[in-house]
Amino acid sequence: MSILVDETTRVAVQGLGRAGRFHAEQCIRFGARVVAGVHPGRGGGTDLGFPVYNTMREAVQQQRPDASMIFVPASGAADAILEAVESEIRLVACITEGIPARDMVTVAAALDGSRTRLVGPNCPGVISPGKCKFGIMPGHIHRAGAVGVVSRSGTLTYEAVGQLSNLGIGQSTCIGIGGDPIIGTSFVDVLDLFERDPGTAGIVMIGEIGGTAEEEAAEFAKSRVTKPIVGLIAGATAPPGRRMGHAGAIISGGKGTAAEKQAAMKAAGIAMAPTPADIGSTLATLL
Amino acid sequence: MKLHEFQAKQVLRTYGVPTPEGFPVSDAASARDAAEKLGGRVVLKAQIHAGGRGKGGGVKLAGSPAEAERQAAAMLGMTLVTHQTGPQGRLVKRLLVEEQLPIAREIYLGITLDRSARRPVLMASAQGGVEIEEVAARDPAAILREHLSGPLLHAFQARRLAFALGIRGDAFRPAVAAMRALAKAYDETDASLAEVNPFVLTEDGRAVALDAKLDIDDNSLFRHAELARLRDLDEEEPLETDAINHGLNYIKLDGNVGCMVNGAGLAMATMDIIQHAGGMPANFLDVGGGASKDQVKNGFRIILSDPSVRSILINIFGGILKVDVLAEGIVAAAKELAISVPMVLRLEGTNVEEGRRILADSGLDFIVASDMKEAARQAVARAA
User: Fold this and answer.
1) Would an 8 Å CB–CB cutoff place B271 in contact with chain A?
2) CB–CB of B313/B274 below 8 Å?
3) Which of A3, A213, A284, B30 is 20 to 30 Å from the Cα of B229, by its Cα?
């Protein structure tokens, strides 16, 4: 088993520019069923073997996709998410980085009470190895198995997956939830999904400094997750306060340091990897 | 992107946030003229992108135009050191000359994004003039909060804040209007922070933004050409600006192991593992998702402009970024810049085999490491 995407997922791709086309092709190579592209002005033709539509509504009517990957540039990406939400697409992964925060406030409001789960933005997407690659992660580093991986960072997710695969440990599903201030799917959401997934036996959770998402996840894990979790917090040695605005740190009550996050995760029974190079080996000791 | 106080006030005024009468000046004679227009008694405020100006001597009162001229002459050209500038301080090139107001009360107002609520929040405190971090640490219950609904702070929310802050009498209505105007300004300028500290109530019943700070979300500048023009490059770290102009994210640090990494999370993890290996990173450098040859070259140039760099660790796990493209960039840049410090490479991801072949065929002396720990060990050993 796996979560969010599998061999039955019908994938649409919004934004068929250079990046969108390259990654659509890679996804098809690694088993995704890409059934439609959406690119305003390019409707009516086919590309890479799938039909292209001007609007998501047409794509839904004709091909019934239930998941969409967004590669639309930052200025129009939030609009593309809203279009997918309006079409009741079950799962949307927005790969685009650099979306204005104000646009994401609008998106967050539209997601409330909708039928759509958003992963990202500014994320690598989701992969259930051997079943469906729904994102920009390099497919060849993954292998099918029973470890769920969730991370705020894209490339650090690949790092963790690479370590697991090198040790012969496969993955059920790997998710990059994105590094932006406003994201659609949280650590807590993903931990909950992994806990309920019979195909997931262990979990890797990789956080970063800033915000309180890791503390919230630790709190959730303590009472609600029975499966073993390996944790890592990146940025223990980063200088404080470089990207946080004057008042920004206040809302979280002055939280957000690596030390606080590590302490919260340890207290929740999460096994912390001693260095970023020890994620796989730490997990191996738990299975 | 940060704005100067005088710029922030100009922007806020257009949204109906009252500010003191004032003029930005960059020479002492203009300060005298400004003081004359403002009735003689003025305050002079150094315009730099850092807080804590008052304690550092960056805010002075003058009782006459002649005194304003003398004060301005002393302030312009000074290097102002505050707790936010670092020990090197900032050169004062411009002053804001403003009328003095009969202040009755000082209040704090600030709007920023509440990540957990996924909406902006207006924070207010009766302890104006004090930094909000101090209030949060000492007396968190003293911070009042109202979340913006969509773009708006509703009238009832602003009233609720005003009542809770104990605002009464003539200043009540203007204070409510000013809070709502501040929220509108935050929304329409795509701000990441709109802070008025202090927001003052005057003895004659006015509500005025005595100080103002406005930070604009860099990701939104494509739709704010008029705000983007307000950028003051002199206030930014030149190397960091250089990096931004080439689509890179660079932060200078104090160590001697230069780093070039793709992705912020992996870049931070690389810094962590360098320290674990007994070294110190010289920088944070995220080459991002689509690093071109030019970006890689500029990345090297920026890393090497720091004379303390003794070795460079390149840690790339390609996703969007194709390793072969990156390898070509590394080889071209290393040849062009005649890089002499040892370079340790750790490359994984899309097209990694072609990438490794390009490096091997280059004839250059790269140290190729098999994993992150080994790469960090090698880079630290060569920097020692």
Assistant:
1) yes
2) yes
3) B30
